[in-house]
């Protein structure tokens, strides 16, 4: 017998982004009662080595803690797992190996949603950690769709992106939103027509300051939430 | 060796109130980094028998599903458990029996917070499900503090409270907020100087409509979140 549907969320990176993702799951599901909402078990344990520092070679690997969370979610009965953190997808293969439940990939969800969008921009900016940018996930896949990619410079990351993210992590959303808005403006100034907000702290902060260009952004956390919700809805829960 | 601190949250009643509780946990903790935030594992599975109907004798008991959630949280390593749903505390004793981790009681947290508050109202209204009101938890403990209690009539519950809660459960926060505001006004009209919002759907809806009397309310979900956060802070995490 198949396992009953239960979405495991490997969160904690950061804890606020994990809440934001849960809200997106609820919003993406047209439930008319509690019982129609998506069942989730959420591992929101932020005591995990800094992903950005690990990838920069200046800190320990978060892999042992990520594996611990994946195992806890599997033990709790998760039938699928989502990780609302782009950077953590560096360890996707290692985590998939220890997870009985399939892990939905945030980049796949985003690029699939993007491929289905009606408007096709010629040039897209990607806001992400250095680790995510270096991995090239978004750039390669966008290029395959014939889209030019603009990314932050190292200087911009140091000046706006990194301090913006850490501001979010200490709850200073307005400060974080201001810094990340400057990062976004720099990419628009270099010709980006749309932006992929490929770090889950970014939309949290930009929404907090009600950034005027939000309609020109794609949000991987949103794409991942929608994919999870579609999976749940395909269980036929709305026909019962 | 003591278990490492991990707060288990038995949620799902409803899923939105569970998110609201998680936000309160973060807000109650003066963290300067992800790593200082409270580690949680959240069971947000709303496929659980209706508590109001069960207590009215018109539906099945939620106890088996509540026990399943408590066991999953214990297996995941929870060192304490919080249940951000007043009505579910009807099954508190049965759940405590199967839980290795101590379960923090929402009524204790609220009444302790209330006993420490500087202003002492003479008359307090309690907004809650019929099940919670019939149990008399809040009324008895308030009476012990020498405070008179005003509660909704059966007619008011049927007209305002119950449809207000079910509106929240289907995401209609403004509609729910309007209905629950009328319930609150009725209690103020009968002399209540303050209100205990003893159902976790209520503050969610009243905040959504920015109810003008919010400063005259006590919120058990907030009291429970603060108790959890104090437990976490007492681990000395801010001295590390």
UniProtKB/TrEMBL annotation, chains A, B:
Superkingdom of the organism of origin: Bacteria
EC number: 5.1.1.-, 5.1.1.13
Keyword hit for tRNA-binding: no
NCBIfam families documented for this protein: asp_race (TIGR00035)
SUPFAM superfamilies: Aspartate/glutamate racemase
Keywords tagged on the record: Isomerase
Enzyme category, top tier: isomerase
Database matches in Gene3D superfamilies: 3.40.50.1860
Similarity comment text for this entry: Belongs to the aspartate/glutamate racemases family.
Protein's name in the database: Aspartate racemase
GO molecular function: aspartate racemase activity
Membrane-crossing segments per the record: none
